[in-house]
Design goal:
The chain is α/β, with parallel strands linked by helices and about 450 residues long. It is built from 16 helices and 20 strands. The chain has two domains: about 190 residues, Alpha-Beta Complex (2-enoyl-CoA Hydratase, Chain A, domain 1); about 230 residues, LarA, N-terminal domain (Rossmann fold).
Length: about 450
């Protein structure tokens, strides 16, 4: 059998797997990096989407304090590239570094380490400007912006005279696309708001999926929160596979985000004619595949390629383990009994346990193909732990790449003529059924 080698995103190093030569490679376009990124950033700030230039807004408002929110370490956002330019524009408006705070939008994720702060913003920015983490678990750091429904948001962001949200746009398996309003919700909100954003009713809606904004309850909840807080300027980027800036979308919170979503949707979209017999995908590589929690995104975004008899093989490094303590406890408590889990959260739909939403999304895949056809290979999790995660671990000798390759070879040998697909970038590729216009 003729084969070809496909480079998969896996940790920081990648993984090479041999697939049948006729396997379908599902991937989007790969836009080039912006050639002169500083010039492009300055041009975007001077000519934003749906908004006056940032310099004009600052000159008109004359804010005493400015808050900038950035994504946490789980997102490959090139903050250190654009923050110095953003700070320069703010400084030129007469606002010194001592009146600026950068807030890491951790949402319900763990706090950043000091080393991660430097990785996120760069040493130069870290030495100039105060950098703090959002702390959803500390009521003293939160401010109420709505009573009905109750919404509490990072106090330093709410109380700033001028609020800037940054981040990057990619397909998102629940909210349609990342970026925009997600820089406020869930990035800066309290647990109760996250529970509503990720609650059982919201995720039970079929519109809560990648690429969908219209009718998506996750998008609607996040946007309502961001509007209640008030965002004065948005700075979002799209990135290449190597993490370089490929597109810049800044200005009005909604208009700039919508423009970015349209372009990113075109770049990342891949038409698919499913179902396939075997689909091989990834957790997206570092930093996204550091935990099993984030790995679920790769499973869910493969759904358009899966039928009820399909097998999905996912590789994901998971060097940081399963995820938060709450998520780990949840997964170990149900130990693969995903049907009981769904029944329990449906019976208590008005209550949302921390991180239950990720298991609920994984259950979409399990309802389609079952645990026995959800294969998993990882170097970061032991087999005993994997067996509690509603996956079928690929056991045997060797690292994950060897075990995954052995499983692929055995599958193809046992099923001559099987339809095989591979998604090298995992959740960064948005699959959509092929229509007449796709040829």
């Amino acid at each position: 059998m003729r084969t070809r080698t496909i480079r998969m995103t896996y940790g920081a190093e990648g993984m090479d797997l041999r697939l049948p030569a006729d396997a379908t490679v599902l991937t989007g376009q790969h836009p080039p990096a912006v050639p002169d990124v500083e010039h492009a950033i300055r041009a975007a700030l001077a000519g934003p989407i749906g908004s006056p230039p940032l310099a004009d807004l600052l000159a008109g408002r004359r804010p005493r304090t400015v808050a900038i929110t950035i994504s946490d370490i789980t997102r490959p956002v090139p903050n250190a590239v654009f923050l110095p330019v953003l700070l320069d524009v703010i400084n030129r408006a007469g606002i010194g570094d001592d009146r600026i705070v950068i807030i890491v939008g951790t949402g319900m994720h763990r706090p950043s380490t000091p080393d991660e702060h430097e990785m996120l913003v760069g040493r130069g920015v870290l030495e100039r400007v105060e950098v703090i983490d959002h702390r959803a678990d500390d009521p003293a750091t939160l401010a109420t912006v709505s009573e009905d429904p109750p919404v509490r948001v990072c106090r330093r962001f709410v109380q700033a005279d001028f609020r800037i949200v940054t981040g990057f746009i990619e397909p998102h398996f629940m909210a349609g696309f990342s970026g925009g309003r997600k820089g406020v919700c869930p990035a800066l909100v309290d647990l109760r708001t996250v529970q509503r954003f990720h609650g059982y009713p919201a995720l039970a809606a079929p519109e809560a999926r990648e690429g969908a904004l219209a009718g998506n309850p996750c998008h609607a909840i996040a946007l309502a929160v961001a509007r209640a807080v008030g965002v004065d300027f948005l700075f979002n980027v799209a990135v290449t596979g190597g993490g370089a800036v490929a597109g810049i979308y800044c200005g009005d919170l909604e208009a700039a985000h919508a423009a970015g979503c349209r372009q990113v949707g075109r770049w990342t979209g891949a038409p698919v004619e499913g179902p396939f017999d075997l689909v091989v995908t990834t957790g997206g590589g570092a930093p996204l595949d550091a935990t099993f929690y984030q790995t679920v995104k790769g499973m869910v975004t493969a759904l358009p390629a899966l039928g009820e008899h399909s097998t999905l093989l996912q590789v994901s490094r998971c060097d940081d383990g399963v995820g938060s303590a709450a998520y780990t406890d949840l997964m170990l408590r149900y130990a693969g009994d995903w049907r009981r889990f769904l029944a329990d959260i449906a019976a208590e739909a008005d209550r949302t346990a921390l991180d239950q939403w990720e298991y609920q999304m994984q259950a979409r895949v399990l309802a389609r193909i079952g645990v026995e056809r959800l294969w998993f290979a990882s170097d970061g999790l032991d087999l005993a732990t994997q067996r509690c995660l509603s996956v079928t671990p690929l056991a045997g000798d060797g690292p994950a790449a060897v075990r995954a390759q052995r499983a692929i070879d055995a599958f193809v040998a046992a099923r001559p003529g099987a339809r095989v697909a591979v998604i090298p970038e995992g959740p960064y590729t948005m699959l959509h059924p092929r229509g007449p216009a796709d040829g």
